[in-house]
Amino acid sequence: MAIIGKLVKAGLEITSKLTLGEDSPRISQEKQLKELLNQAKNTAFGKYYGFEDILKSDDPVSAFRKEVPIFNYQTMHEQWWVRQERLNDITWPGKPDFFARSSGTTGKSSKRIPITKEFMSSMRSVGSSMINSLHEFDFPESLFESEVLMLSSSANLDENEKGFKEGEISGINVSNFPDWYDIFYRPGKDIAAISDWDQRVNAIAEQAPEWNIGAIAGIPSWVLLMLQRIIERHQLNTIHEIWPNFQVYASGGVAFETYREDFEAVCKTPIKVLDTYLASEGFIAYTCKPETMAMKLALTHGYFFEFIPFDERGINETGDLLSDPLVLGIDEVEIGKEYVLILSSCAGAWRYAIGDVIRFESLTPPQIKITGRTKFFLNVVGSQLSEEKMDKAILELAEKNKTSINEYMVAAVKNEDGEYIHQWVLVGEVKSDALAEKLDEILKAANKNYAVARSKALKGINVKVISKDQYTNYLASTSKKGGQTKTPKVMTSEKMNSLLEFISQP
């Protein structure tokens, strides 16, 4: 085998041994908080909330919770971040170099998250830790001799009138890759800078046979479309005909399981799927063990985490945080329980509610799974459907119909009689006259709260099936096509009506 692959693999094993003996999660997180507070104590935010006094207290974690309120994007942006475009030292020393645009999956207008030098360094550090963990998987040396394809959003960033560059976080990352990344990074900066999604993927498909791809990273829906387009362009049976060393897929952005069957269909040999929690707010967690897709929290990379129970102690029936929720530290969480994630970071986010719900799968090390978004909690009439429960129901429905369903959207809407029903839109080639009845029965059997709701205020469900082309055309009409785009699984009634109107057009 090539000497390079052996050297890289040996280097990862040595690095892993050198990183043994880390502090406990609680101590690591206390250190992170103190470092963040110390770096930001002379900012406007740090002075306003008394970071210097918090650092002097006997219990900085408790003092931090007492003095600093919990922020969501709207409050953080309106009260603090908007001032960073013209002033230094607002929530973090200096000014941010970039703003990451993210509409996320809420369907609202774009968020603008500040991206600092320290934040970029933090994301690279988490990425390095993920790479170092690959020694656990015992991959062959051929993987470390191959190239990595990252399907990002456009690296052609916009420059606003105040001199800041803006784009999606994946595009910002790619645009800041050092030149030596060109040795292994594909599709390269030139193709990554193509703004139009279809043109970018066509360029990837054209050059695909020239590359030796061993690993791919990106959101499942768009990676799958890219692989299918490459296979179609070169009349292949599977992607392994041109990329025999393709062994690893780093997923992220949305749950992978509804895509697994279709990924298996385009691959000749099994691939290892790793999950990543990489958001505009940070590279928060990654899969580090071969026996699970749970993700290890990045506890030592410039983030301080807090956790709010995703139950009556932390949220109301619509998924909004209580005014005074119970807040727990990393040493107080429990395996199998769901929590709303609260983040403080070296981008100048402080006690920031990202909007994600996570569940702990282990505590040594702390490993999590994302179970949904707080606003993907469909509970208008007490049905209590989390994204994870809906994913499982869709997988079971697909299995019953011997097909695959990758994407779906659902909303609580009112029928002609003014009563609530659930309107579902499924994306796939599903042929059945009884989809609504089947899905209804699956949900009733799996979720007693849903069954109770169906016997009372939730008067029925309706299911409409659309093709993949209709789905991507809809995304294009909303300027949400390609790259790192995620679409909401739980929609407002207004968004659902807009979708239904679009797909009803000839």
UniProtKB/TrEMBL annotation:
The lineage of its organism: Bacteria, Pseudomonadati, Bacteroidota, Cytophagia, Cytophagales. Residues 389-494 form the GH3 C-terminal domain. This is GH3 auxin-responsive promoter. It holds the Pfam family GH3_M. It comes from Algoriphagus winogradskyi. Residues 299-373 form the GH3 middle domain. InterPro entries: ANL_N_sf, GH3, GH3_C, GH3_M.
